[in-house]
Amino acid sequence: MRARLYPIGGPSESGDGPRDDPLPSQPMLLVRLLLAALAGGLLFASAATAATLATEKPCYQEGADVVATGTGFAVRALVGIALDGSELGLAQANEQGIWRNKIVAPRVRAGAREREHVLIASDGMNTAIKHFRATEVFAGFSPSKGRIGTLRVRFRVFGFGLYKSDAKVYVHYVRPSGKVRRTVYLGEARGKCGHIRRTRRRLLFPFTPERGTWTLQFDTRKSYRKATDESTFAWFRRPVQVGS
User: Fold this and answer.
1) Are 170 and 220 in contact (CB under 8 A)?
2) Which of 96, 117, 135 is the last residue before a domain boundary?
3) Are residues 38 and 145 in the same domain?
4) Total domain count, the chain
5) 180-227 pLDDT tens trace
C-alpha cells in the first residue's frame, strides 16, 4: 500500500480526500532532484536552509500516526513531501511559513524489527530533512525448543522505549491460573525505539514450572499487572507450553 500524506483534521470541507497523486509542480520536481542527490551521496548537512522539519517523537510504532511540522518555508507555499524516495503529495504553508500534516509510520519488514526513515520537504527554495524510526513492538527468545528444565536462551525485545527512554525491561512469569510466579529483570532498552538485541544466556524458566500454558509478559513495570490495549507502558506477551 502506498504511503499517503494526510492534513491534520482529515479531508477538507470540499470533500477532497488526502492528496496522493504526483503533481508536476516545482516543489515535487525539486524533491525528486534531492532524492537523486541523496542516493548519490551528494547532499550534506552544510547544504541545509533555514527551513526545519520536525516530528513529535524520534520513534513510532509501525502503523502509528506521525505528525510532521515544517517551519521556515515560504508564505502560503505548496511544499512537496517525500518519504524514503516516494512522493507523498503537497502540504500548504500558512502565513508564517508553517505547515503540519501526518503520515502513517510504515510497517517494518518481516524480521527487521526496526527501521530508519527519511522525510524530505521542499517548496522550491527552502528544503528540510528529518530522520525518524519506526519499530515493531516485539519480545522473544532463542532457541525456542529444548527441555524446559535445562533450556538456556537469549531474550530480545524491540519497541520498549516508545513510552520512556532507557526503560528497564522485565519478564513476568504468569502461571496457567493467571497468577504471577516470578519477575526477572532483563536490562535497559537502548536506542531511540528501545531495544535489547540479546541478553546473556540464561534459563528460560529459572524455577521448576508446573504443567500447563504459562504466559511470559514482557514490559517495563517492576511489579506485574496484566497489560491491555489501554496500558500506558510497552508490553508483549508470549505463551509457553509446559508438558504435553
Assistant:
1) yes
2) 135
3) no
4) 2
5) 999 999 999 999 999 999 999 999 999 999 999 999 999 999 999 999
In this structure, the answer to whether residues 160 and 88 fall within a common structural domain is no
Dihedral angle over CA of 131, 137, 141, 142, nearest 10: -50
Q: What is the pLDDT of residues 147-183, one digit of tens each?
A: 998 999 999 999 999 999 999 999 999 999 999 999 9
Q: Are 169 and 155 in contact (CB under 8 A)?
A: no
With b for 16 or more beta-carbon neighbours within 10 A and e for fewer, the 191-214 pattern comes to: bbbbbbeebeeeebbeeebeeeeb
Q: Which amino acid is at 163?
A: Y
Measured distance CA(104)–CA(57) in Å, rounded: 13
How far apart are the C-alpha atoms of 193 and 160, rounded to whole Å? 7
150 within domain boundaries: yes
* Alpha carbon distances (Å) from 171 to 35, 54, 124, 220, 230: 43, 34, 51, 9, 19
CATH of the domain at 161: 2.60.40
Is 157 in contact with 195 (CB distance < 8 Å)?
yes
**Is position 143 within any domain?**
yes
pTM above 0.90, yes or no: no
Tell me the CA distances in angstroms from 112 to 67, 107, 108, one per residue in order.
Answer: 23, 10, 6
